[in-house]
Structure formats: structure tokens, C-alpha cells
Amino acid sequence: MATKTYIQAITDGLDQVLSDDDKTLIFGEDVGKNGGVFRTTQGLQDKYGEDRVFDTPLAESGILGLAMGLAATGWRPLPEIQFMGFTFEAVDSIAGQMSRTRFRFGGEKNMPITIRTPFGGGTHTAEMHSDNLESFFTDVPGLRVVTPSNPYDAKGLIISAVENNDPVLFMENLKLYRSMKAEVPDDKYTVPLDTAKVVREGTDITVVAYSAEVNEALKVADKLAKENISVEVIDLVSLSPIDTDTIFKSIDKTHHVVMVQEAQRMAGVGATVVSDIAENDILSLDAPIGRVAAPDSIYPFALAEDDWIPDAAEIEAKVREILTY
Amino acid sequence: MANNDSSKPIVDFAAIKENLGSEYKMVQVLDGSAKVVNQEVFDSFSDEQLVDFMKKMVWERALHEQTMSFSRQGRLGFYAPTAGEEASEMGSVSAFEPQDFLFPAYRDLPQLIQHGGSVEKGFLWSRGHVKGNQYDPKYRAWMPQIIIGAQFVEAAGAALGIKKNGENNVAFVYTGDGGTSQGDTYEGLNFAGAFQAPLVAIIQNNGFAISVPRKKQTAATTLAQKAVAAGTPSVQVDGMDILAVYSVAKAAREYAAAGNGPVLIETLTYRYGAHSSAGDDPSRYRTKEEEKPWHDNDPLIRLRKVLEDKGLWSDQQESDYVDECKTQFKADLKAADAEPKQTNVEMLKNTFEVPTPNIKAQIAEFEAKESK
Questions:
Q1: Where would one find coiled-coil regions in this protein (chain B) (predicted)?
Q2: Residue A104 confidence (pLDDT) above 80
Q3: Could you tell me which of A15, A287, B39, B280 has the fewest CB atoms within 10 Å of its CB?
């Protein structure tokens, strides 16, 4: 076991799937010789050769169409879209094509494709490099959407995604790439694709979050513990499907819930979680459901993003409000 | 410093523009009056092959007439008329091998039927039944693409996969004149070029994208020249001459399969009918006078003349064969009628290989409803 950053854990997972299955292919813009603009695929072309890890022309729809054709001829593609904002160029390939393939062929053909893409704010990027676009894709039948919040899950989840025979959108948090380190086993292990995780047990209130916001929620849990307020934190891990059972079980115990997301409020993952709670478990609650989300404005330019992204202070305020309702 | 008016410009853009596409000369084996203009290629065809081409075109024309009649009776769903395009469609598809991977667009049902599908499945596809998308595994093909251009990036991927598999096959993909304006069409060509993947791209230029004429689609002199930007050789062929289309497609297939990278073929053809069976009216955007020369140039008339001269074909043979085809199409429609209805349970099960928890719950819900 070694201490690894979030990005090293992903590289480890990619190394594992390339070594396990010689049908796996990694490709995209700059992923070959350059090892990716963030170095996620660092060293993999040297180790597995240019046939398995290769650069493509600069065209996102082309990259994902390529993935489909490769999958149709027996390969297991891991295309990278350099930034999630660039998936706008490939919405048809994802939503209009690969996610519908199994359905179109009446279950006869699978699309075992894992699309990796970095997203998320806090690193002062250029426009379109930080947007949280998950809710575009959680609305797509036939597509799984997952995102790890820590190095351990990052490695186990990328392996599960690749071993799965359906298309998976694997969202990597840009800010966590190098800011987060943890113990990561050297051996192969998997993290389930559709199971939420209780990352902190508590009894007074449940905070549901995903990706970088899980770590903000944990900061709040640490702080409030000193006041004897016990916060349970759930990491969704999978944004489609959503593991509602884990959430309901927690709410049945805490009777209070706050849903946190970095993305804009409207029609997001939080809205789905909240409506599932309202539909199935509303009578367990002693107070209204709290929500923390970004404003419904465009993802801001770099210098304004710190004011825009929901942080621990906002979560703490909402938790106190719901607990004292 | 003032420019000297008489000096030569550093670049003569007007001259460059004038010459763009001028190297393309439409390939023919038979000219419009069925005269052999390439004797060597013509002599390479056996009598059996010539009759086979004739039968394929008669079959496609009969299928067109029958589907239009079924559509008027409300017995089919979406169907794209193909009359006029028989030489382009049957000539091209006949050049490929079963394990070549076909990526058709929605007007390419006749090629799909020839390449692993069946008329019954074509009818099921038209009605929107999933069984219409399950083909004979001896062939490789994907269902007709609805999003114009998307098939090009997928075909480029299949071509790369074929190359990585070390196969001697190709991927072949169709679109129309309108389809060449899509970004995906260029991306697919460019990817296949960059990877030197065995792709044969066939542009069936039938003159119209629904109502928009070819000349409004692009300033390019030919659609074939669009391949040049992707480093891909291309050719323009008379799409009303099945012998030319077949010969060019066969050569393209051999070139691509030999590891030389992609090729693009533009066939010059015409859609006699409407864009689709769903209410398009060509009289809104073109005149009978404009249509007439294309009807005079009909691909069946052209080959029929050659065959009749050789004593290989007669009106009687043709009308007997049309009757035979139409009887079969009626039986195929009956077989399609007998296909069980799709259920929500089935469709939910087809969404993921391993159903997700929400899908599992919905399967249980619909099993209870649909078993009643």
C-alpha cells in the first residue's frame, strides 16, 4: 500500500485494465507521448505501445464515434475527452448513439466504452474547462455516470467502469487530481458502480454530496462534531443510477437531510435525489429538505469562481438551518 | 508605397477557385444512351453478372413501388423512397464482402437488405420494431443512421478496429449530398485518413437534401473533392450506370483492403420520389421539366438496352420477375405482421446488460402490468 494522489490512483487503474485485457485501448487528444495534459496517461504509451495508447486528431465527436466503431469490432475503448466542457461537441455520440446501441439492437450488441473526462471548479481554468455538466448526461438512458471523491475510489471505480459492458461516463475532479492523497492498494480491487458510500457515520443529519463537495461536507462534519452535532456524510459515487436505498436508510436514522452539489441548482442531480426522497421517504423527515447548489448562472470566469462554488461554510449554514427548523 | 496595378498579385485566388475540382471526370462504362464507353471494363463482366445486376435493380424498383403502396395503405412507418438510385445502391453494395462492415443511412435499406438484412426486417425497421435491427451474423452491418453524418465517425472507428484486428476487410459507409455538410462526415474521413484505416465512403449525390438543392449545399464544384482535405483519394462516378458504380466500388474496396487508407466515391444520381413516405411533396421545390432528363437517364433503361441487345433479357422476363418479387414482399409483410409486440419489460432489459437498480424496479413493475 502506498500513498497516492487522486490522479496517480487513476493512472494505476488504467495501467491495471491495460494489463488485464489486451483489447483495451486508450486514446484521445494528447494522451500518447504527452501522457495527457494532466499526465493521467503518463508512461502508458511507453509501456503498452502506440497500438494500445494513441493520440487522435482534435475532434471530440470523432473520438467518441471512433470508440463506437472500435467497440463494434471487438475492442474495449477508453476514450478521453480532454475537458468535460468539450463533451458539448460530442453530445450526439454519447446521448444519440453509444447509449442507445444496445437498445437499438435488441440487446444483441453492447458498447463497453468508458469515457474519461475531467471536470469541476476551483483551479482557475479558462472558460468551458470547469463546468459541471453531469446532469446533461444523467438524463440519458443507457449511460452510467460515476465520479470518485478520493484516490481509493478513483482506482477501484475506473477498473469497474472498464470491466462493465455498458457505456460509462467517468468524471474526474480536476481540483482533486493533485490536492488529495490517500492510501491506495497496489493490488487490483474494484469499487461497485451503482452503490453510494457512507463516508462518515452520524446520527443527527445526513449530508448527501458527490465529488469534491464530499470533502467540503466532511470538513463540516469535523467542525460540528466539536459541538456534538453528528453529521452523516454520503458520497453518491454514482450519479446515474442513484443509490436511493443508502440515502433512505440514513434518513430513517437522522430524520434530516441536506443535498449538496457544485453544479447549478436547476434540474440537477440534487433535484433527482430530493424528488426521490420526497416521493419515498418524506415521512421520515422532521424538517424540510435542505439544498446547497451553485446559482443558476453560467459557470463563472476564473476570478469569480470562488464566490460561486458552494463551500463548507455554505453547507454548514444550511445544516444548522435544517437542524434548528 | 503604392502598389503597382500592373504587377502580378502574390496569390491569384480567382484562378485557384476556377480550377478547384476540375480534375474530377465522371467515370462511366455505359453512357446515357447505353453505348459502351469503356470496352475493357465492359468485357470483364460475364453474362450472368449482367443479368444479376439487372435483377437487383428490378428488385429494388419493385421494392420501392411495393413499399410506397404499403405506406399509402398505412401498413409501414418511415420509409425513404429509392427509385432512381438503383444503380448507385445495388452497384456499390455488390462490390463488398459479407464481413465488410456496412454503415447505412436511412435511404440505404436496400443495401442493408442485401448485406445481412431481409425485406421482412426492413419492414420491421420501418415500423419501429427492434427485430428489424437484428441481422444475419454472417454479415456485419449497423442499423440505418438517422442523425446525418454520425455513421461516418462510427465507420472510421470500425475501419480502425478492422485494421487492428489484422483483417482483410473494410468498413463502408453511405450518406447523401446533404450529409457532406455535416461536421461528423469530415471528422470520420479525417480520422480514417489519419489512421490510414480501410474505409470506403460513398456519397450518393441525388441532388436534394429534402428540398434543398445540391448547389445550395456547398460552393464545392464536386462533393468528391471534399475528401482531398483529409488526404483521401476520391472519384466521381455516373450513379445511373451500375457497371461503372460497381467497378469503381470494387476498385475502392480492393485499394482500402490492401492497407492504403480510405477512399471516397461520389455517385451522381437522382431521387425520383419524395424525401420520405411522410408527406414530402417534391413539386414544392422542383419542376417536372427538371426531373425529365433524369428519368430519361434511368439506370434500368440503360442496362436493359444492353441486355436486350445481347438477348439476355426481355419484357416478359422482367414482368415475371417483378411479379415474383412483389408476391414475396407481400409474404414478407405478413411475416412482419406476425412478429410479437415489443413490451416495456423487454425494452428495459435492453437498456443495460446488467440492469441498474432503478431499471430492475421498473422491470418488476412492468412485469406485473404486462403479464396481465
A1: none
A2: yes
A3: B39
A75 and B164 within 8 Å at the Cβ level: the answer is yes
Is the complex ipTM higher than 0.85?
A: yes
The pLDDT value given to residue B4: 56
Summarised one tens digit per residue, pLDDT across range A279-317 is: 999 999 999 999 999 999 999 999 999 999 999 999 999
Please give the tally of structural domains in chain B. 2
What's the maximum distance between 2 C-alpha atoms anywhere in chain A?
60
Nearest residue of B to residue A57, measured between CA atoms: B191
| Tens-digit pLDDT profile for residues A126-138 | 999 999 999 999 9
Q: Does A183 touch chain B (CB under 8 A)?
A: no
List, in order, residues 6 or more apart from A79 with CB less than 8 Å away.
A26, A27, A28, A63, A64, A66, A67, A113, A115, A116
Residues 6 or more apart from B216 whose CB is under 8 A from it?
none
Question: Is-contact B48 B206, C-beta < 8 A?
Answer: no
Q: Which residues of A are catalytic?
A: 129
- Say yes or no for a CB contact (<8 Å) between A73 and B161: yes
Alpha-helical regions (H) of B242-287? 242-255
Residues 6 or more apart in contact with residue B108 via CB below 8 angstroms: B89, B144, B174
CB contact under 8 A, A92 and B184: yes
CA-derived radius of gyration, chain A: 19
Distance CA B250, CA B309 (A): 26
B318 shares its domain with B346: no
Residues of B in contact with A69 (CB under 8 A): 153-161, 171
Phi, psi of A187, deg, nearest 5: -75, 170
Residue B37 sits in the same domain as residue B182: yes
Q: Which of A5, A51, A10, A60 is nearest to A32 (CA)?
A: A51
* B346 contacts in chain A (CB < 8 Å): 106
Contact of A106 with chain B, judged by CB distance below 8 Å, is answered with: yes
Which residues in B have their CB inside 8 Å of a CB on A? 101, 130-131, 133-134, 142-143, 147, 150, 152-162, 164-165, 171, 183-184, 187-188, 190-191, 194, 346-347, 349-354, 356-359
Mean pLDDT of B40-63: 98
CA dihedral A261, A265, A266, A272 (to 10 degrees): 40
Examine the domain organization and report whether B234 and B350 are in the same domain. no
What ranges do the domains of chain A cover? 2-184, 197-323
What values do phi and psi take at B33, rounded to 5?
-100, 20
Q: Which is nearest to A150 in space by CA: A217, A204, A206?
A: A217
| Residues from chain B contacting residue A104 (CB–CB below 8 Å) | 130, 133, 143
Among the partner residues A92, A102, A144, nearest to B350 by beta-carbon distance: A102
- At B272, which amino acid appears? Y
Q: Could you tell me if B188 and A56 are in contact, meaning their C-beta atoms sit under 8 angstroms apart?
A: no
Cα R_g (chain B), whole angstroms: 23
A182 in contact with B at a CB cutoff of 8 Å?
no
CATH placement of domain A197-323: 3.40.50.920
Task: Indicate whether B2 belongs to any domain.
Answer: no
